Amino acid sequence: MTGTPPxxxxxxxxxxxxxxxxxxxxxxxxxxxxxWGPLAALLPTGWRSVAAELPWKAGTDHxxxxxxxxGAWLAATVRAMAExxxxxxxxxxxxxxxxxxxxxxxxxxxRGAMLIxxxxxxxxxxxxxxxxxxxxxxxxxxxxxxxxxxxGERLAGLDAETLAxxxxxxxxxxxxxxxxxxxxxxxxxxxxxxxAVTVPTMVLTGGRDPSLDGPRATALRAQMPDAHVVVxxxxxxxxxxxxxxxxxxxxxxxVEKVCPDSxxxxxxx
Length: 269
Description:
Elements: E1 10-14, E2 22-26, H1 37-40, E3 48-52, H2 70-80, E4 87-91, H3 93-104, E5 112-116, H4 129-151, H5 160-188, E6 201-206, H6 214-223, E7 228-232, H7 239-242, H8 244-258
Parallel strand pairs: 2-3, 2-4, 4-5, 5-6, 6-7
Antiparallel strand pairs: 1-3
Helix pairs in contact: 2-3, 4-5
């Protein structure tokens, strides 16, 4: 059963100069709001960056899905903010929460929305067992990529068997309910009224990210012809972490485009 969920906590990530834009950052499944720190540090000095701590954070039991969809949770969070964000930026499930919100919550209208590594189900795609199996394989691939990213320099000291065991533990920790939640939301994107979206939107995805491959990116472009879809060939699913400098450049350019009257103080550290 779903309804109107409560707002999620919002944490400050970077400071603010008078008149500068406010950017709300939305994490993906089994991630943390703190993961936005390195990217926020690369945005122009003075911008106010805040990060939402959504209930699909690391360690969740996925009970949140009974209280509302990702978009409903995010919309409740934005409505409760004392100062509404100018731009909302989401990654992975967070990006899809942003997409759902701007498509289905007409009273929540930020000046811009940016989706980093979202997933999308084309309306004409039959949802077969083969599609389910592919989604599950992509799910494991993305978890493996996220693990490698978190390990950083420690990765060099691990053998393949140990790494695979660690990945399997993470897959089990998220569990079938976590995967089913993602798959349900993936298939639900086919029915979103994307034609009704009026918020300026940018989609940033990678050529090495299975969540929004070529045909799906093309389908999303067709459903949202006014959206600016950028595919960076070398980006992975976690590009906001391992290609943070390049992603921050895209974020800064988009924010400056949709907030031209904001006072941008300082530069990129």
